[in-house]
Amino acid sequence: MMLSSFLRCLALPAFITYGLVFQVHELHSAPLKVMGPPGPITVAMGEDVVLPCRFSPAQSTQDMEVTWFREQLLPFVHHYKGGQDQYSDQMLQYEGRTELWKDGLAEGSVNLKVFDVQLSDRGNYTCFVLSGSDYDEAVVELKVTASGSAPLVALERYQDGGIRVSCRSAGWYPRPRVLWRDPHGQHLPSLSESVTQDQSSLFAVESSIILTRGTKQNFSCWVQHVLDGQERGSAFYISDPFFHNAHPWIIALSMALVALLLIAVYLFKIKGKREEKIAMREAALRDRDAEIENQAEELEWRRYALHIGEVRVVLDSDRAHRSLLLSDDCKSVKREERAQDIPDIPKRFDVRRYVLGREGFTSGRCYWEVEVVDGEGWVVGVCRADANRIGEIVFKPEEGFWAVGQWEGRFQALTSPARTFLSKIQAPKRIRVSLCYEEGRVSFFSIDENIPIFTFPQTSFEGKTVYPWFWLDAGTRLKVWP
User: Fold this and answer.
1) How far is CA 181 from CA 158, 159, 194, 237, in A?
2) Which of 410, 413, 350, 404 shows the shortest CA–CA distance to 379?
3) Residue 414: CB partners within 8 Å, gap ≥ 6?
4) What span, in angstroms and rounded, lies between the C-alpha atoms of 334 and 374?
């Protein structure tokens, strides 16, 4: 009995110790998970905002690297590494306006505070956390609003047997609603409404209404925020004597205006015909110049697009990110939510979701085609063999990347120092990539509309191998032809 009790006493501490070791091992082996808020963050222009972001499980703050960025890793919005903030490659518009809450790092919080928010700050922010070889990211959407001035109400003129009243307000974002109300709060239909936007993207609105005799003389004009329903209004009153003069003199004035109009039409009839002929001649010249310019662009494209051999592109599984799943024939690729359990070899991209073609090019002229089967986010082009594949990557010709794609809802070319937005061209579902190695030229062609898209300035590949290169956003699937 004494021996049995002694063994039971030894078993309990051993069981507790085993459980603690097992839990620590589970905590250490759990994959890093980064989480953002469930919905957009909304803030008024000029206010400060906190962009929430959390990670789990807990990590060593000394070895942790946190990067907040917009479209690409560099330049960044805010960067924390080695236990302190890094500002060498921060975006100019965020200098002195960001603060990472370091007090919450130990509890898994990497919230970013942005001071004095402007309209240009609206959009998507990526919260990227790297710890050792493990990493994850989450997207936080920031919406910025602006409340404009109180409405200015003005009596303009007599019109259609009544009085035309206008209501103006400026300094709003996004575009607000204008509401006319009677003394009982009932909405009144407006006669017209105009909206303009200034250089800072703030909206100004103007609405008009015609009030006739017999209507209530107490009215109000309200300008309403479409996001939070916030309103600013102005009330006004029109006394009855104003309506007595709405009709008699307006008829005589209308007749006089008609007579003057007939005289004006007669006097300027000949002059109008002459100006019309001049305008038609100028329009014809503009059309001819535009046609010549289009033909020149077409000839320039054909010079580099013709006599190019079609090549068979096969995707390389050894150069694909672990979250990219290739088909059995390596002709299509799709992005999965979680990374595959496959070896992390040196040739593989370790941070971003990219894949290369198996065969590269060191000479000749060739092309291949890419079809966007599913998804809205993708980039296709070529990548030089010595381009960086590990850690932070900047995609521009100087770093060995020539590509175009649909990124964050905008069709663009990855040029340098700034992106080239192709706003006049709809993002195609099937695109041709053309490479002329000796001339150092990379061009793109829309198969959907049979038109050229973009040609990068002539460069030198420095004798290095150039590979087909692809990037996929979440839910995207691409297929290469033939």
Assistant:
1) 20, 20, 19, 12
2) 404
3) 379, 381, 395, 396, 401, 402, 403, 404, 405
4) 9
List, edge to edge, every strand of the sheet that includes 231-237.
Answer: 187-188, 177-181, 218-224, 231-237
Q: What is the DSSP letter of 30?
A: S
CA 413 from centroid of its chain's CA atoms: 14
The closest of 364, 363, 401, 403 to 384, measured between CA atoms, is 401
DSSP for 103-172, please give it.
Answer: GGGGGTB--EEE-S--GGG-EEEEEEEEETTEEEEEEEEEEEEB--PPPEEEEEEEETTEEEEEEEEEEE
Torsions phi, psi for 304 (to 5 deg): -105, -15
The answer to whether the CB of 163 falls within 8 A of the CB of 246 is yes
Q: Are 371 and 478 in contact (CB under 8 A)?
A: yes
Characterize 155-166 residue by residue with b for buried, 16 or more Cβ atoms within 10 angstroms of its Cβ, and e for exposed: eeebeeebbbbb
Query: For residue range 209-231, what is the model confidence (pLDDT) as tens digits?
Result: 988 766 556 788 999 988 777 88
Question: Taking each helix axis from N to C terminus, what angle separates 248-267 and 269-305, rounded to the nearest 10 degrees?
Answer: 70
Total-model pTM:
0.45
Cis peptide bond N-terminal to 417, omega within 30: yes
Is 269 in a helix, a strand, or coil?
A: helix
* 58 CB-near residues (< 8 Å, 6+ apart): 27, 106, 107, 108
pLDDT digits (tens, 9 = 90+) for 365-414: 999 999 999 998 999 999 999 887 776 778 899 999 999 999 888 999 99
**Residue 313, CA distances (Å) to 260, 331, 357, 401, 402 in order:** 74, 7, 6, 18, 17
